[in-house]
Amino acid sequence: MPEDWRPSASLGTLRIRAEALARVRAFFAARSVLEVETPMLCRGGLGEPHILALRTMLTGGRHRYLPPSPEPAMKRLLCAGSGPIYQITRVFRDGEEGRLHNPEFTLIEWYRPGFDHHALMDEVEALVSAL
């Protein structure tokens, strides 16, 4: 067995994380914001020059990308009339590994059609306070 078989997070940390995620879900459920899941294999990257997607190859030589953000897929849902939506998902970014950066991390992204930037700032403050 390898020397580094132990998890990198303690059970206490995992419990705190699980509680925080439950609170995020309760926060958005109380506001009738729908939780969605978007695909984890994408045909293209994000299209932003400073965010690099991780590429993988499927059988037959077809390339796909691990999403650096759920933004494009979530905006398609908005265009289809989804209304307010949020997603808690893993995202992957190449070229961002270091002491303070990990190429894989959890991201919370949400969209509130009709909200202006003041309403969104208020909601961010309320979400952080709920945690």
The DSSP helix count reads 3
Total strands: the figure is 5
Strand content: 15-25%
Radius of gyration: 17 Å
Task: Report the major sheet.
Answer: 3 strands, mixed
Structural class: alpha+beta
Helix content: 25-40%
Shape: globular
The oligomeric status of these chains comes to single chain
Strand order of the largest sheet: 1-4-5
Order of helices and strands: HEEEHEEH
Average predicted confidence as pLDDT: 90
Q: Domain count, please report it.
A: 1
Q: What low-confidence regions span 5 or more consecutive residues with pLDDT below 50?
A: none
Straight-line distance between termini? 38 Å
Short description:
With 131 residues, the chain is α+β, with helices and mostly antiparallel strands. 33% of the residues lie in helices and 20% in strands. It has one domain (35-130).
How would you describe this protein?
With 131 residues, the chain is an alpha+beta fold. It has helices spanning 11-30, 71-79, 117-130, and strands at 34-35, 54-57, 63-66, 85-92, 104-111. The strands form 2 sheets. Strands 1-4-5 form a 3-stranded mixed beta sheet, with helices on both faces. Strands 2-3 form a two-stranded antiparallel ribbon. A hairpin with a 5-residue loop joins β2 and β3. The termini are far apart.
